[in-house]
Amino acid sequence: MTVVNLSILKNGRAKAIRFSTLTAVCEALECRPGDLLGLSDDD
User: Fold this and answer.
1) Which of 8, 19, 23, 35 can bridge 31 by disulfide, Cβ–Cβ 3.0-4.6 Å?
2) What is the pLDDT of residue 43?
3) Mean pLDDT of the region 18-27
4) Which domain holds residue 26?
């Protein structure tokens, strides 16, 4: 994962995330996908 990709995720500009990326982030943070993802009412 690159610094640019981390920045996009951190700043909320990501439109999608690959399952492999999500898995890597969760492994690094020792969390589950549900801890990182949520629903919003934004269009």
Assistant:
1) 35
2) 58
3) 91
4) 3-36
